[in-house]
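Title: Comparing notes on inverse folding

I've been comparing how different people in this forum approach sequence design from structure. To keep things fair, I'm posting one structure and asking everyone to reply with a full sequence. Here's the target:
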């Protein structure tokens, strides 16, 4: 039975109208989702780069359900099942030293900013124009978009913004009072903007010269999305702190930060009731096992998208794909949905495709066919 109408009525009456939406997703399996009327879609939104293992992957569902039967919550007052094992795994795949958990990407950003402040004893942050790091008051301070930041100012924290890729500009504002420079390896919300490797080498150098910490936000790009565990691993640059979330636990809410040796929270400096709970850690570990199997195929899948969409000059890194289509973006998004493919418009007329890492070649070919039909 299609209860989309009832969901819409309840939403309009009882839910604060912060989102624009007009369809309900009620079921997912692999790279497919179904709406309230039973229509099937290939999902190239994947909860915005979250459902990395596809929807309801059997190993992920099993890990979540098994853990739910054992213990759902206990508090960080105790050792938590799977928490240490997950921290070890994250440290190994990221090449960092220690991990700390959060419940979302924004919270991971907040943790990273707090860690940078408390360990450097400095207060200033530098971030980049069109960058996105979250909507909590801390993470909002380093999020560029004036429309979502300025209504909440003063935030208690603030950042200086420099153009993405502008090393000369960065050099002018980072100094011995700067706690950290926060940067996305690929700007996701801005529309999949990929700077050259030399940009990150330059950021590293400026941070090294001034003692500012290099915080790399891998909330969207991390956990295999671009064909490596971290997008920054496409370069030789080693950050001081990395944040993760979205793809880490297949849709179970979780964030994390990992930091190099010498950077850690001391007792009582940070904490959370829910973060790193048994369900999140069990689900993340199962997710990582699936990603380990899938990761070797991600680059080739991205190249399949690139080849099929070549005439639109796509920006592709693994399964993070951006195509500039301009003002017609919302229309393209709508037409794709009508043709059975979910895509979404990031900022500035940029269509973004971030499908599950498990998407099949046949599904990629179908998405490519639909997009070619619509983009012409
Ligand atoms: N950082 C980046 C790069 C993001 O893309 C996002 C969300 O889109 C966030 C942080 C915030 O994550 P969350 O929405 O889980 O708070």
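Reply #1:
Here's my take.
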């Amino acid at each position: 039975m299609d209860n989309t109408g009832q969901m819409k009525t309840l939403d309009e009456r009882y839910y604060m109208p912060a989102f624009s939406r007009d369809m309900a997703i009620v079921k997912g399996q692999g790279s497919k989702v179904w709406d309230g009327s039973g229509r099937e879609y290939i999902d190239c939104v994947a909860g915005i780069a979250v459902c990395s293992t596809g929807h309801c992957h059997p190993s992920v569902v099993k890990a979540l359900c098994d853990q739910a039967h054992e213990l759902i919550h206990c508090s960080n007052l105790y050792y938590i099942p799977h928490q240490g094992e997950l921290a070890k795994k994250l440290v190994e795949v990221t090449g960092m030293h220690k991990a700390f958990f959060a419940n979302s990407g924004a919270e991971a950003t907040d943790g990273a900013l707090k860690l940078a402040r408390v360990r450097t004893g400095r207060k200033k942050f530098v971030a980049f124009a069109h960058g996105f790091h979250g909507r909590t008051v801390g993470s909002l301070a380093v999020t560029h978009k004036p429309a979502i930041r300025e209504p909440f100012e003063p935030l208690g924290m603030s950042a200086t913004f420099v153009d993405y890729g502008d090393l000369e500009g960065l050099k002018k504002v980072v100094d011995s009072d700067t706690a950290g420079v926060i940067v996305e390896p690929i700007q996701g919300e801005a529309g999949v903007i990929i700077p050259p490797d030399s940009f990150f080498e330059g950021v590293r150098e400026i941070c090294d010269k001034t003692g500012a910490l290099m915080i790399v936000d891998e909330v969207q790009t991390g956990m295999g999305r671009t064909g490596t565990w971290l997008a920054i691993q496409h370069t030789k640059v080693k950050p001081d702190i990395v944040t993760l979330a979205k793809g880490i636990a297949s849709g179970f809410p979780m964030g994390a930060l990992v930091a190099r040796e010498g950077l850690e929270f001391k007792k009582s400096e940070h904490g959370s009731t829910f973060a790193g709970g048994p369900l999140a850690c069990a689900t993340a570990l199962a997710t990582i096992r699936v990603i380990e199997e899938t990761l070797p195929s991600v680059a080739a899948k991205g190249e399949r998208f690139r080849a099929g969409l070549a005439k639109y000059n796509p920006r592709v890194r693994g399964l993070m794909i951006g195509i500039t289509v301009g003002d017609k973006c919302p229309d393209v998004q709508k037409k794709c949905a009508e043709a059975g493919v979910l895509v979404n418009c990031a900022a500035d007329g940029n269509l973004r495709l971030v499908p599950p890492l498990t998407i099949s070649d046949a599904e990629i070919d179908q998405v490519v066919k639909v997009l070619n039909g619509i983009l012409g």
